[in-house]
C-alpha cells in the first residue's frame, strides 16, 4: 500500500514537472525567460520547452501594435501664445528583451517623451505656424521620438496630433483682435470711399469749369467773327457790335427778371444809346 502511495506521489511530481517545462506561447506574444535570475532566452509563438524550477517566464510581452494616448497639455509657442494639444502614438514592440530590460515602463516613458517633444517642437514655432502646420509637427514629432524609443526595442508606427487649438483666454483675445481688425478695415474703407468721392467731385467741377471756359472762348470767337462778317457786309464797324452787345444785354435782363429774387427790372428808355454809351461812343 505504501509503495503505491509513493509511486503515485512520484508520478504526480514527474507529471507536474513535465507540464511546467512545456510552454505554449500564443501568436502575438513573446515570453522572456530568466534562468536563476538572469536573462536566458525569449520564447517565440508556438510550443517551447524550458527547464522547470530553474527557468521561469519573467515577462510576457505583446508584440501586437499598441496605442498610447497622450493627454491634453498646455504648450507655449515662440510668440508666448498658449495652445492646447494632445496626441496618439501607435507603437509596436520589436525586441521584447530590450523593452523589459532597457526601460522600467516603456509605455509611461513614451507618453512622457511625446509630451516633452511636442512642447519643444511647438515652442520653436509661432502661433499661426503651430495652428496651420499640423503635418509638419507630426513629422518632426515622429522623427524625434523614433530615435529614442528604438533603443528600447520599440518601433513607432505613427504619431497623430489629435487636437491643437488656442486656450480659452487666447481664443477670446484672438476674437477681440479679429473684431478690432474688421472695424479698422471698415473705417479705412469708409475713409477711402469718402476721399475717392471728394476727388471725383473736384474733378467733375474742374472739368465743368474747363468746358465752361472753353465754351466762353468759342462764343467770344464766334461773336468776333460775326461782328467782322457783318461789318464787312454793311460797311459799318459799330452797328454789329451794338447789335450783339444789345442782344446779350437784353438776355441778361431777361434772366434777372426770371429770378425768384427779382422784384423789379428797369430797362433803359433808349437801349441803342445806352449800349453806345457802354462802348464809349454816346
Describe this structure in words.
The chain is 57% helix and 23% strand. Strand 6 and strand 7 (82-93) form a beta hairpin. The radius of gyration is 53 Å and the shape is rod-shaped. The chain has 282 residues and is α+β, with helices and mostly antiparallel strands. The termini are far apart. The protein is built from eight helices and eight strands; from the N terminus they run αβββββββααααβααα.
Concise synopsis of the structure shown:
The chain is 57% helix and 23% strand. The protein is α+β, with helices and mostly antiparallel strands and 282 residues long.
Counting DSSP H or I runs of 4 or more residues, the number of helices is 8
Quaternary structure? single chain
**How big is the Rg?**
53 Å
Order of helices and strands: HEEEEEEEHHHHEHHH
| Class by alpha and beta content | alpha+beta
Percent of residues in helical segments?
55-70%
Largest sheet features? 3 strands, antiparallel
Secondary-structure map:
Elements lengths: L1 H20 E4 L3 E7 L2 E6 L2 E4 L5 E8 L2 E12 L5 E12 L2 H6 L4 H18 L3 H6 L1 H16 L4 E13 L1 H67 L4 H20 L12 H8 L4
Antiparallel strand pairs: 1-4, 2-3, 2-5, 6-7, 7-8
Kindly list the characteristics that best describe this protein.
single chain, 282 residues, alpha+beta, three-stranded antiparallel β-sheet, 8 strands
Amino acid at each position: 500500500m505504501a509503495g503505491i502511495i509513493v509511486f503515485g506521489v512520484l508520478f504526480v511530481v514527474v507529471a507536474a514537472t513535465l507540464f511546467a517545462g512545456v510552454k505554449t506561447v500564443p501568436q502575438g506574444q513573446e515570453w522572456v525567460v530568466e534562468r536563476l535570475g538572469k536573462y536566458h532566452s525569449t520564447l517565440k509563438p508556438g510550443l517551447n520547452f524550458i527547464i522547470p524550477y530553474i527557468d521561469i517566464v519573467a515577462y510576457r510581452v505583446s508584440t501586437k501594435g499598441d496605442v498610447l494616448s497622450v493627454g491634453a497639455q498646455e504648450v507655449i509657442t515662440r510668440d508666448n501664445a498658449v495652445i492646447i494639444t494632445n496626441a496618439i502614438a501607435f507603437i509596436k514592440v520589436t525586441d521584447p528583451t530590450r523593452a523589459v530590460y532597457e526601460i522600467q515602463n516603456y509605455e509611461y516613458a513614451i507618453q512622457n517623451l511625446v509630451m516633452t517633444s511636442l512642447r519643444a517642437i511647438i515652442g520653436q514655432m509661432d502661433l499661426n505656424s503651430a495652428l496651420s502646420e499640423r503635418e509638419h509637427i507630426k513629422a518632426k514629432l515622429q522623427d524625434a521620438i523614433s530615435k529614442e524609443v528604438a533603443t528600447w526595442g520599440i518601433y513607432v508606427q505613427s504619431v497623430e496630433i489629435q487636437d491643437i487649438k488656442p486656450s480659452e483666454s487666447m481664443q477670446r483675445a484672438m476674437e477681440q483682435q479679429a473684431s478690432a481688425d474688421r472695424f479698422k478695415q471698415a473705417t479705412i474703407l469708409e475713409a477711402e470711399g469718402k476721399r475717392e468721392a471728394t476727388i471725383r467731385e473736384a474733378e467733375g467741377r474742374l472739368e465743368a469749369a474747363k468746358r465752361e471756359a472753353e465754351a466762353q472762348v468759342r462764343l467770344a470767337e464766334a461773336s468776333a467773327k460775326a461782328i467782322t462778317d457783318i461789318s464787312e457786309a454793311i460797311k459799318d464797324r459799330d452797328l454789329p457790335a451794338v447789335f450783339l452787345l444789345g442782344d446779350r444785354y437784353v438776355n441778361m435782363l431777361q434772366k434777372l427778371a426770371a429770378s425768384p429774387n427779382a422784384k423789379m427790372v428797369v430797362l433803359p428808355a433808349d437801349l441803342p444809346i445806352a449800349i453806345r454809351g457802354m462802348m464809349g461812343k454816346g
